[in-house]
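Suppose you are handed only these lines of text.
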Amino acid sequence: MIKKRLSDGTICKKCQEAEALLKRRGAWGFIDTIIWADEDDPKSEGMRLAKQHEVASAPFFLVGKPGEEPTVYTSALKLHRSVLRDRPMTTPDAAMSRRVSQEAEAKALDEDEPQKVIRWALETFGENTAIAFSGAEDVILIDMAFKTGLPFQVFVLDTGRLHPETLRFVENVRVHYGIPIQVMHPETQALEDFVLERGLFSFFKEGHEPCCSVRKVAPLRRALANRPAWLTGQRRDQNPATRGELPLVQPDPIFGSDDAPLTKINPLAAWTSDRVWTYLNAERVPTNTLHDQGFRSIGCAPCTRPVTAEQTERDGRWWWEADLKRECGLHLDLTGDK
Ligand code: SF4
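From them, the structure of the protein bound to iron/sulfur cluster can be written out as follows.
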C-alpha cells in the first residue's frame, strides 16, 4: 500500500479510511508493505511510484508478483472486491513476508530518533500497541506517541505497594493528555494466598522474584495478551549489568509465542538520564514528585530508595540483591540475563 504523509507528519485522511476499511473486512493482513509518499518530498518512494504508475495521489495499492508488472488499485473497496475478498484470511507466505519486511524496517531505524521509532511502531503494529507506564521515561513515550496523532494504549501495573506519589503521578499523566490508562492489579486469590503464606515483606529474605511474579509479572502477562507489540522506557545506562546490550526492537519470547508473536520496542534504549530530563523539562510534562527527594528509578515503596550522584539508577532498587538479579521479571532474559 502506498500511503501519503502530509507535511505536518500526519497521515492523509483517505489513507486512514482505506486502512480502516481493510481492517474492518479482515483483509489488512494481506498488505505486505507500507510505502510512504511524502507530500514534501517528490523523491520519496511513494511519490516516485505514483508518478511511475500515473496515479494522482495516494492511497493506492500495487498488486502482483515480484518481477511482474503490478496491477494498480486506487480504491480499497475495489481492491477488496476484486482481489482480497475470496482469499483465505491468512497464509504462511503473507505472514512470513510481513515479518521479513518488519525486521528490515526495524534494522533501518535510527536509535537517536525515538519519535520516528514510535511512529514506525504505531504504524506497523496498529492501535493495539501499548505503552507500559511506570516511570519518567514512559511519559516521554506517551508524549511522543500522543504527538503522532495515531491511536495507542497505555497500561500501568498497580502492585498494591506503590507510593501515593506514584499514583498521583499516574493520574496527573492521565489528565494531562486526556487519555485512558488501564490500571492492572494482581489477581486477588493469588495475592491473598501469597501473603498468607509468605507475609508482606518476604522479598527482604527470599529475594524479590516471587513477590514480583504475583504483583507484576502475572498482571503484565494479562496486559500483553493479544497485543502485537509493546513499548518500554528501558535505557542501556539504567543498569549496564543487565541492560547494556538492550536492542531498539526485539522479539519478546517471554510474553509472546510462536502462535502469538509479540514485539518489544525500546525507543529510548540509547538515551542517557540527562537526555531524558532535558526532554521532560523542555516539554513540561508531569513527573513523579519523588524525584525531588532523590529517587531516580521508582518502583514499589519498600523496594525503592533514593540514590547518590555516584550510584546508578538501579542502585535504588532491590539494593540488598546482586546486580544481575535486579530486574523484576518484566525484562528478564532478553539481554541474556536471567
Ligand atoms: S518491587 Fe518489591 S514490593 Fe513490588 S512486587 Fe517486586 S518485590 Fe514486591
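What can we learn from it? Confidence is low (pLDDT under 50) at residues 333-338. The pocket of iron/sulfur cluster is lined by residues 159, 161, 203, 208, 211-212, 215-216, 299-300, 302-303, 328 (CB under 6 Å).
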